[in-house]
Write a structure and sequence with these properties.
Layout: H1 20-52
Length: about 55
């Protein structure tokens, strides 16, 4: 009861779109979203920094 749990060899999915290919596609989409989010935040941060460090009058 408290020992090792047996792993299932094959996963059974009831609904369509729950296969390994879909999980891999969603994982790839997630990491691209993270990369794009970091790039956009760096661009916005750089733009804010440039505006704030502009010529002092």
């Amino acid at each position: 009861m408290l020992g090792r749990k047996e792993k299932k060899n094959g996963l059974y999915y009831l609904l369509p779109g729950m296969t390994r290919a879909n999980r891999e596609k969603r994982k790839r989409f997630f990491w691209w979203a993270v990369v794009v989010g970091l790039a956009v935040s760096a661009l916005v941060g750089g733009l804010i920094w440039l505006v704030n460090s502009g010529p002092r009058l």
